[in-house]
Design a protein that fits this description.
11 strands; 4-stranded antiparallel β-sheet; elongated; mainly beta
Length: about 120
């Protein structure tokens, strides 16, 4: 599965962006999907995830501001980011992982840069 992330850019604090991650295969629907980010000098962190059953999880710093959603019919996962803060500045990566049979799969998209100016 190939993942193609898009939607990053430069936005002022308080603004919004929507990231999208399109998968190349329909099997995408069986995976847990997530958005990670990595800021300069920091480790990559999980921002939000959504299981195939629709259960979502958010890191505390984005709770109430970010929303992850998936549109399996379009093999796409979104990250709606509202009330952006300068500390949200990072390269954002989409991920899909899970078992297919007994084999673990872990796919990453290329990053998309989000820059939030103060």
């Amino acid at each position: 599965v190939q993942l193609q992330a898009s939607g990053g850019g430069l936005v002022q604090a308080g603004g919004s962006l929507r990231l999208a991650c399109a998968a190349s295969e329909k099997s995408f629907a069986i995976y847990t999907v997530g958005w990670y980010r990595q800021a300069p000098g920091k480790q990559r962190e999980l921002v939000a995830s959504s299981t195939r059953a629709g259960s979502t999880h958010y890191v505390a710093s984005v709770e109430g501001r970010f929303t992850i959603s998936r549109e399996d019919a379009k093999n796409t996962v979104y990250l709606q980011m509202n009330s952006l803060k300068p500390e949200d500045t990072a390269v954002y990566y989409c991920n899909a992982d899970g078992y297919l049979g007994s084999t673990w799969y872990d796919y990453w998209g290329q990053g998309t840069l989000v820059t939030v100016s103060s």
